Amino acid sequence: MRIRLGLSTPALAQFVLALVPLWMCLINSRIASSQEVTGSFTGSVVDPSGAAVVGANLTAKDKERGTTYEVTTNDVGVFSLLRLPVGTYDLQVEAPGFQTAVYHSATLVLNQTARIDFQLKVGPATESIDITSAAPLLQTDSVQLSTVMDIDSNVNLPLLSH
């Protein structure tokens, strides 16, 4: 028994060959969209005694774009802002009964999880505290090893043709 589809072999071959570029475009667009240029902030918010501040509002403002991102601390005083565009951010924490804490110019690089902890002081929210300590160089929240290469490092890479 022979089944005939109504397409000759050359016509079927042309049809399949026409689908291959379309299929390749779809696969390449999936790969390109899966690559991210983001980073994350995480940390804790505690009071002067070291107890967690539950429900504190954290706002991260991107200094270059002016975009703001908001999150609230969980039941153990921890916050996570995931998948933020790389850049420089001002972080601000507010909680009822505490002074507002501000961390200026926190730089977020590609695939980084920056940990920034806040210790709030008791007082009216109209007063603010500027946090001046730098983010630690050792990232204990991730086992990822990474580096950022500048243009000079990229140009000086050895090539097979040399």
Structure description:
There is one protein chain. The protein is of the alpha/beta class. It has a domain at 38-131: Carboxypeptidase-like, regulatory domain (Immunoglobulin-like). 19% of the residues lie in helices and 33% in strands. A hairpin with a 5-residue loop joins strand 5 and strand 6. The radius of gyration is 26 Å and the shape is elongated.
Structural class: alpha/beta
Integer average pLDDT: 81
Helix percent band: 10-25%
The main sheet comes to:
5 strands, mixed
Which key phrases capture this entry?
single chain; elongated; 2 helices; Immunoglobulin-like; 162 residues
Summarize the topology.
Elements: H1 9-34, E1 38-46, E2 57-62, E3 68-72, E4 78-85, E5 87-94, E6 100-108, E7 113-115, E8 118-119, E9 128-131, H2 151-155
Parallel strand pairs: 1-7, 1-8, 6-9
Antiparallel strand pairs: 1-4, 2-3, 2-5, 5-6
Provide a compact summary of the structure.
This protein has a domain at 38-131: Immunoglobulin-like, CATH 2.60.40.1120. It has two helices and nine strands. The protein has helices at residues 9-34, 151-155, and strands spanning 38-46, 57-62, 68-72, 78-85, 87-94, 100-108, 113-115, 118-119, 128-131.
